[in-house]
Amino acid sequence: MAKTNIVVVGAGFAGVYATKHLAKHYKRNKDVTITLIDRHSYFTYVTELHEIAADRVPEDAIQYDLQRLFNRRKNVKVVTDNVTGIDRDKKEVVTENGSFPYDYVILGIGSQPNDFGTPGVAEHGFTLGKWEDAIRLKRHIEDVVRRGSEEHDPAKRKALLSIVIVGSGFTGTETIGELRDWRDTLAKQYKLDPNEIQFSLMEMAPTIMNMLDRSDADKAERYMEKRGIKVMKNTGVVGVHEDHVDLKDGSTFPTCTLVWTAGVKATDQAKDFGLKQGRAGRILVKNNMESQDDPSIYVVGDVSLVDQDGTGKGQPQIVQGAEATALTALTNIEAKLENKEQVEYKANYSGFMVSLGSMYGVANIMGWLHLSGFFAMLMKHLVNMLYFIQVYSGYYLFQYFMHEFFRTRNGRNMFRGHLSRQGNVLWTLPARLTLGAMWLIDCWPKIQGKESWFIDKLRLPFTWLQPAATSGASSAAGADATSAATGAAAGAAKATKTVFSLSYQYGNDPMMVFEKMPNWYYSITKALIPNQQVAFFMQKAMTIMEILIGLALVAGLFTWLTSAATIAFVGVFCLSGMFYWVNIWMIPMAFACMNGSGRAFGLDKWVVPYLQKVFGKWRYGTPRSLYGTDTLK
Known about the structure:
The protein has 633 residues and is α/β, with parallel strands linked by helices. The protein is built from 18 helices and 26 strands. Helix 10 packs antiparallel against helix 11 and helix 12 packs antiparallel against helix 15. The C terminus is likely disordered.
């Protein structure tokens, strides 16, 4: 077989997909070389740009390094350069810094936002088509909210704190939902009433989210309105200014932040290749994804247009479409090289999933399964993760999982923050549950039967509490008194020798931390528990406290306090001569649980912030960004 060069231009969804599958198919064929060229050294998961713009995940969370993606593929050469054109006579892909010979080209240079020439969008508006756009929007929103918090003029303040999204497609609805999730954090940071930060979704059509069934779209609309998002249908934007927009009906709307998501078109670079273009600048291709001008150039992803129905509209510009076009192109290149039959592009859309923030979404799977809320979000994440499986990247599948569930900002994920503490508090959950269960299991025999600590029978083995003339039986009872933490025997000397160990050893008795109370502690204890009546009360109170500590630890309620109480109780038991070395693990485990583990699947997730808010307001009042003005109350 002669040497074959396949050049893939553009490391988007389609380009990466095609490169990965070609590399795998020809991994044992040294005569086939694949070159992937992109202006960036990373692949951007552009469908999640809204998460960056709304500060949900770290800024680099949706960037996936091309070297990591293709390092194990020795037949792939990754090039970071800007492609300026294709010399079809010389059969070379030309870049700013060189040229690359090709036998076949897969052109997947993507799309960009389409403002349809609306005046002012380029100068004063924001789009969300690439990573830089998301960073720019994020910085801008932080700036206008800060400025709004300091602005005294009500009209200017309203414009600064009003955020408008134009277009109710995937990008628009997901962006406004994510920004709404960010609202409370911004408000707290800049000492604002959250309700002052207003969100409006403007759509020219009489209905929103027209890519969905009406039932799903209506459900999403109700959710947005419930969260205070103003949905403005039949509203066309005809002009954008620094502090307001012009509407089609002649009115104006105050805002310093307009995000335009009302359409996409082929990237401007598409015109540089001398290939026929159709609607929105998309390059026209045949049903097998060959360019209509050159059978050696295949066009994939958003930049391609397959006019199968004759309407000129083409296939939807979504990830599933990009994957399908890439699969068709690479299959046909393989067919040409191996003298096989060509295949035609076949749309295969498994459904549509739309998020409205980090915790709610709607989905239509296979045209008949309708989901909303948690399960729609779960499906969206599963589909996103499926892409990494399809491009054989376990590393970035893991990174996606970590960013979406463990490293999200301010607990914003589908699990409502239970997994997302930055210090990985989740991993102390088993320790917290074990420690709580330890208390409850120990207390179980103390609350029932003849051994109950709630009957007036002496359980504490302190000598001064025994009757003056004790019988052998009563002495034995004292010797068999159970400890508060373990219920183990503590008292009389045993026949077998005790040994020091941090684990139970068969055939040996564990050693107590203190065989007897230190003299100073003996004096304190005797003063606090002078007689049997006080001892009976203390036995009951101590048992109740142990039960409450166990229940609180299991439920994740006041975890710091209950962990501290665990340490204190164990210290008391040790000094009282009632605790073994083998159970000393309770102290370091309690310290580990003091790091906020109650917020990982625990009631502290809600209780602690609520108490901080209530007592903080009671003690210090409500923080504000402006003082000495009555008009902003």
